[in-house]
Write a structure and sequence with these properties.
Blueprint (H helix, E strand, L loop, with lengths): L19 H6 L2 H9 L3 E4 L1 H18 L3 E6 L6 H9 L3 E4 L2 H9 L7 E3 L6 H9 L3 E4 L2 H10 L8 E6 L14 H13 L4 E7 L7 H20 L6 E3 L11 H10 L25 H10 L9 H8 L2 E4 L10 E12 L4 E5 L20 E3 L10 E6 L8 E9 L8 E4 L22 E6 L6 E4 L5
Parallel strand pairs: 1-16, 2-3, 2-9, 3-4, 4-5, 5-6, 6-7, 7-8, 8-9, 11-13
Antiparallel strand pairs: 1-10, 10-11, 10-15, 12-15, 13-14, 16-17
Helix pairs in contact: 3-4, 3-11, 7-8, 9-11, 9-12
Length: 457
């Protein structure tokens, strides 16, 4: 079913990852698909380490004191926690299980950041016992922390106060101006039971200027808190550093040309439904740009304001540390003809490619790994469905323009899925096993070395 009008089918080629080539060229991907009998994820921890080093270097070059916490929720794999610990970074956790995992894989307790709303008492007790920093989300939570803190001040509770962004007043997270003022009074009244270390925030979206503006505001709050006698020397900006999955022209062209006819069943998406798959600055470069930004109503860069105030910048990236750190492989189980395209059915569900479950689509083009590389070439559009009984269970609604006709037994490799795609919505639906995570420890050899990830739970 060849189609001869390439311009008909928008493409979104992923930024290439050289580390993936040995996994494909060595035949390892095909062998692992056979061994596991289902989909699997493979992890490239060297990419994580490179991203971490780049962020730490960005802080050093700017002259800003800072610390990076890996946002564990972005991927459950143990290997990334191990690399964070080895690289001198911390881990951002939001449950007792995540905290135990981080400790068990080498992260020091004082290098943990505990976030999330209405934290369970067991989580707070663990955080206090291991001297983790607690981002306090509400006044009643602060009261609970103070009540659980050991008496005597030998091991004070280390807290940040989470601010409600003025631009996101309907958020259920953080404290408004009045609540922050009350929280400061309670921290002072708690005496040596609490060490109030500063403030934190999380912003939706990926724009840098609003982050610079809010950081500057919290620097001012730190200065005011110091005048009251509190330590207040740190500001956490959370996550939200963008990454680029594709090039600028590819992204522009895709948005300009895609329409319902390019999707199975005439599925419609608004461009605002999609993650911004291209960013002019990404990862560590985005951090550098943030530090170089001039917050509104100020006269110097954010980096200079942090340095002048003696404030340490904390950040909790997830996706940005996981850029190019893994991919997901499915096997084609069946091929069905439709009017002008095909529907492929693979051996897993879209629960292992999470973007589809947020009324969106994971857009980077999957790569076809045919069993017969000498098959006919041309243009063969196909959407990709999952092995469940749900109409909505589609890995890719878009009709992908494959260069060869997909066949049962071929593999589909979805690139750059380590950040949030692999496991944020995973479920053993239909009693299908969860895809295993395979760690590729060495990609600089003809035959890459691999092992299963050591995630405890």
């Amino acid at each position: 079913m060849e189609v001869t009008r390439p311009s008909t089918w928008p493409t979104l080629p992923a930024v290439p990852s050289p580390a993936i080539l040995p996994v494909i060229d060595s035949g390892l991907a095909a062998e692992l698909a056979h061994a596991f009998g289902g989909p699997f994820h493979f992890l490239l921890p060297d990419a994580f380490t490179a991203n971490l080093v780049a962020m730490q270097d960005a802080l050093t070059r700017s002259g800003v004191g800072g610390f990076v916490y890996y946002a564990k929720k972005a991927n459950k794999a143990a290997v990334f926690v191990e690399r964070a610990a080895a690289g001198g970074a911390g881990v951002d956790v939001a449950s007792a299980a995540e905290l135990r995992e981080a400790l068990g894989h080498g992260v020091r307790g004082e290098h943990l950041m505990v976030t999330g709303p209405a934290k369970a008492p067991v989580l707070l007790r663990l955080a206090l016992a291991h001297r983790a920093t607690i981002a306090v989300d509400a006044l009643d939570e602060l009261d609970q922390v103070i009540s659980l803190a050991p008496a005597g001040g030998a091991r004070p509770a280390r807290v940040l106060l989470r601010a409600l962004p003025a631009a996101q007043q309907h958020s259920r997270f953080g404290m408004n101006e009045s609540e922050l003022a009350t929280a400061l009074k309670r921290c002072l009244a708690a005496g040596d039971a609490v060490r109030m270390e500063g403030f934190s925030f999380h912003l939706s979206g990926y724009a840098l200027q609003p982050r610079a503006n809010l950081t500057a505001r919290l620097i001012g709050l730190c200065i005011d808190a110091r005048r009251q006698g509190l330590e207040a020397g740190r500001v956490s900006i959370g996550g939200g550093l963008p990454i680029s999955y594709t090039g600028a022209e590819s992204w522009r062209s895709f948005l300009a040309t895609q329409n319902p006819s390019h999707y199975h069943g005439g599925k419609t998406f608004r461009s605002t439904d999609f993650y911004p798959y291209h960013s002019p600055v990404a990862g560590a470069d985005a951090l550098t740009a943030l530090l170089a930004a001039q917050p509104v109503n100020t006269h110097s860069t954010l980096a200079n304001q942090l340095k002048n105030a003696g404030i340490e910048l904390l950040l909790e990236p997830g996706r940005a540390l996981l850029d190019q750190a893994g991919a997901t492989v499915f096997t084609v189980q069946g091929v069905k003809d439709r009017d002008g395209y095909q529907i492929l059915t693979v051996d897993g569900t879209s629960l292992s490619l999470s973007e589809q479950w947020f009324n969106s689509e994971y857009l980077p083009d999957p790569q076809l790994l045919p069993r017969d590389p000498a098959a006919t070439t041309g243009l063969f559009p196909a959407s990709v469905g999952a092995a469940s009984c749900l109409e909505s269970d589609m890995l890719t609604w878009r009709k992908i323009a494959f260069p060869q006709p997909p066949r049962a037994g071929d593999l589909l490799l979805y690139p750059n899925t380590a950040g949030y795609q692999m496991d944020s919505n995973e479920s053993p639906f239909h009693d299908l096993p969860l895809p295993p995570k395979v760690v590729i420890d060495r990609t600089d050899q003809i035959r890459p070395r691999w092992r299963l990830d050591r995630h405890f739970t």
